[in-house]
Amino acid sequence: MPRELELLVNGARRQVKILAEERNRVRFSIGERTYDVAYEFPVPGKSSGDGASGERRSAISRPRQSSGNRNEVLAPIPGLVAEICVAPGEPVIAGAVLLKLEAMKMQNNIVSPRDGVIAEVHVEKGAEVGDHQVLVSFVAENVSEK
Prior knowledge:
The protein is an all-beta fold. It has strands at 3-9, 12-21, 25-30, 33-38, 57-61, 64-66, 69-74, 79-84, 91-92, 97-103, 106-111, 116-121, 128-129, 134-138.
């Protein structure tokens, strides 16, 4: 039977069901969406954290948002786009992985800062991105409903 948790994500309560757990993988669902997460933190057999083994490590990075613009997600660090996990028109929830950015032998999961619908992905897999570069934009929120 799945374990159930209630998490606070960006100020919103989310019901999470842990469906399966293995050594470095977790499968869980939030609402109707299911997520598979693999993690490599810390790297087995490494205590120095210097990355000298050449192994990639994973981390979750909070993306930056344009000053006053909740509709753009900016790169928190310069790096190489390793994977794009969303497409225009796709609805996402806060905390969902938008893309993976590789920097200094470490893959950073760039996560959604809010619930919304993806308007545009501004980068391609393999592209070099700079600090504060726009990565993803959301469809503008309808502020009249709030």
